[in-house]
Amino acid sequence: MEQKEALFNYLLRLGDNAAILGHKLSEWCGHGPELEEDIAVINTALDLLGHARSLYMYAGEVEGKGRTEDDLAFLRIEREYRNALICELPNGHYGDTIARQFLFDQFNYLLFSELVNSKDETVAAIAAKAIKEIRYHLRRSMEWTLRLGDGTEESHKKIQESFNDLWSYTGDLFVEDESDAVIVAAGIGPDLNTILPIWRENVKAVLAEATLEMPEDGWMHSGSKSGRHTEHMGHILSELQYMQRAYPGCEW
Q1: CA–centroid distance for 47 within its chain
Q2: Between 20 and 30 A from 202 (CA), which of 67, 152, 163, 167?
Q3: 105 lies in which domain range?
């Protein structure tokens, strides 16, 4: 595989992670557990959509076929999206959302902390800007994990169940393929195998402080990097893509 193709695939994955998770978080608008948190979760969604736009713009440049960030965000079929499966899961109750966010934030923070040193100057610049916001996302989801885990008996029980239910989707974050191998060899992105043990230790430490148990490893979901998704992805795209497909080329 040529580096150009690998970089395009890599940028799409990063952009899709941000776009799909940002879209899911946006569903909390007007439904947050309290006003301040309602604003905070939507700000996180807006940050992620900003990251997605920067990544899609660069992906379009790398591809060289004239596709814009809107084309890449709204005009691909389901099997062409490469976001991690955990990003497309339902919001559930607020504990489910926080557990999903915390697990992803830990991964995203470690990944982008490495990408700021990328040999690709544009990737490094995007990461340097995004990491400031990702650091806040992690702090927020970590604080909520502690608050719910070490809170009431009910909150502890619910968020423990959330982590148990989500755990089998975390393996998908660290699956590597040919594109990853090219990116690592070129010094553009990190080897995910070096991130995994740090991620595990960080997650374990926070869960312990929150009086929660780290779920046991077992069978893990995978397939996102080859375009295989959960049943939830089609419903997401039906909402996300409606305007562009109903009114092609529309702009605000």
Answers
A1: 12
A2: 152
A3: 3-246
